[in-house]
Amino acid sequence: MSSQVMKVSVVVPAYNEACRIAAVLRPVVASPLVDEIIVVDDGSTDGTAAAARCFQVKVVSLLENKGKAAALDEGVKQAHNDVFLFLDADLVGLQERHIETLINAFHNDEIDMVVGVFSSGRMNTDIAQKINPFASGQRVLPRALWERARENIEEMSYGIEMALSRLAAKEGWRKEKVKLDGVTHILKEEKRGFIKGVIDRFRMYGDMIKWLIKKI
Fold it and tell me: What DSSP state is assigned to residue 81?
């Protein structure tokens, strides 16, 4: 493939990221490799949708918080293209070159899915992704493989990364990891306060573990 013929839709699921989403959308909008940008406001209460509309992007607002998997799925449904770049809305340090690295890696016809892994960003997020790189939310994949993974979308919530990685391993998808040097994200504890952040983190881990156990 070449960047001239492959049209990529970027899908950004966002929940209460009004003060952070601009840092993600700015380099995405600037990238010539991106054809379409869809922000899915997952029932936010802080003006996330309004912040996103400051950019040339399509904003889809869900009436209630449905979880990351459902938000991504809604973005895919709204997209015109068949190749997707998924990006989290709370990334720090994202630059246009990182987007190019992710998309260019997918140009290789031998690759089914590209996963972006934090590197040289923050020690705790770097270590977390070294331990479990396929829990990353930064991915490029085609519509056909998303459709394979979404069969139980209503059960996944925040287990979508694990679902994709597990299905990829089961079906032998050809994967490539690329380093996103200098990129990290805001921790839940920083966004929502320590106690609520810890609760939300364990809820996220619980969703992942519950989905994995159900599939064993």
Answer: S
Q: What is the mean pLDDT of the chain?
A: 83
pLDDT of 34 above 70: yes
Alpha helices by DSSP H, 121-193: 123-131, 143-149, 153-156, 160-171, 188-192
Span 136-148, pLDDT tens digits: 899 999 999 999 8
Calculate ∠ Cα 216-12-189, nearest 5°. 75
Q: Which residues contact 36 (CB under 8 A, 6 or more apart)?
A: 7, 8, 9, 10, 58, 79, 80, 81
Residue 122, pLDDT > 60, answer no
| All structural domains of the chain with their residue ranges | 8-187
Strand pairing report for 83-86 and 8-14: parallel
User: What would the CATH number be for the domain defined by 8-187?
Assistant: 3.90.550.10
